[in-house]
């Protein structure tokens, strides 16, 4: 049985390198602390293909959040190169990086970071009106559908402060996903949640990966979650200690499906 999907358009066959979603070359990050300069990431290199599920693991302080922030263009590296779908982040200005985030990236923060003065629905509609310039009414409709998907149909008009931690995290995930990003970065997305809620949220992330070929990059110190991914990048004190290759490779089919399905 051919591994290449017959529906695949020739574009991908002839340019397989287009499947690289994230390319990291010799990235080093240095931050200023009271004690002086601290090298938080040290000569990190790897690449992630579209549709992969990657766990970034490592002890507290090993540089996981710093790395994720760099990949998402929230910060710039001291040296090295990061490309998101061939866009060289280090060569872009703040506005251009914001545009890359809106176009390609959904980010789920550990601390949710919802806007307190907006309802759940308004929080989720925001990326649509900002990124896609979708009219407000339609954005609210899409946002409502996304909230249905994360099981929050009954809570759409509530403000974050009256929602539980799990519900707030679902809103944050709905907001990260509503504009159908090609990459989801999630920083300990289930760290603050009880076991069942954490499970439901994880299921949702993997469902999107399977259904839409979304590239999933999740920082976690939960080994159960890490094992659900098909690849683990392990950091030790700012060094890439191990890059465990896929033990199950389910994603190529969904990658191909995704390219055929979205066609963009
Ligand atoms: P992790 O997410 O793995 O727990 P972080 O990436 O948050 O680790 O941080 C890695 C190290 O860098 C820690 O020692 C942290 O204190 C330090 N660090 C990160 N960002 C800053 C900053 N802006 N200022 C000072 N220290 C920082
Ligand atoms: Mg962290």
From TrEMBL:
Keywords: ATP-binding, Nucleotide-binding, Transport. The keyword Iron does not apply. It comes from the Bacteria. SMART domains: AAA (SM00382). GO terms for cellular component: plasma membrane; transmembrane transporter complex. Residues 22-262 form the ABC transporter domain. PROSITE patterns: ABC_TRANSPORTER_1, ABC_TRANSPORTER_2. One of its GO terms (molecular function) is transmembrane transporter activity. Pfam families: ABC_tran. Belongs to the ABC transporter superfamily. Macrolide exporter (TC 3.A.1.122) family. This is ABC transporter ATP-binding protein. It comes from Aquirhabdus parva.
């Amino acid at each position: 049985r051919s591994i290449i999907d017959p529906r695949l358009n020739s574009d991908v066959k002839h340019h397989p390198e287009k499947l690289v979603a994230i390319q990291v070359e010799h990235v080093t990050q240095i931050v200023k602390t009271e004690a002086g300069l601290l090298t938080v990431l040290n000569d990190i290199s790897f690449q992630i293909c579209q549709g992969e599920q990657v766990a970034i693991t490592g002890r507290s302080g090993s540089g996981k959040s710093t790395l994720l922030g760099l990949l998402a263009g929230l910060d710039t590296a001291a040296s090295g190169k990061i490309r998101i779908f061939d866009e060289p982040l280090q060569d872009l200005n703040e506005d251009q990086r914001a545009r890359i985030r809106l176009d390609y990236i959904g980010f789920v923060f550990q601390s949710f970071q919802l806007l307190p003065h907006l309802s759940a629905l308004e929080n989720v509609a925001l990326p649509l009106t900002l990124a896609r310039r979708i009219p407000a009414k339609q954005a609210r409709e899409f946002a409502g559908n996304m909230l249905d998907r994360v099981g929050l149909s009954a809570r759409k008009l509530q403000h974050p402060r009256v929602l539980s931690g799990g519900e707030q995290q679902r809103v944050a995930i709905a907001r990260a996903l509503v504009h159908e990003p090609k990459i989801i970065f999630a920083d300990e997305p289930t760290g603050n949640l009880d076991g069942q809620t954490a499970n439901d949220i994880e299921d949702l992330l993997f469902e999107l990966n399977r259904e839409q070929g979304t590239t999933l990059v999740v920082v976690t110190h939960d080994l159960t979650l890490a094992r659900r991914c098909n690849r683990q990048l392990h950091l030790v004190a700012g060094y890439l200690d191990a890059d465990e290759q896929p033990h199950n490779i389910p994603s190529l089919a969904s990658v191909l499906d995704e390219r055929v399905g979205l066609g963009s």
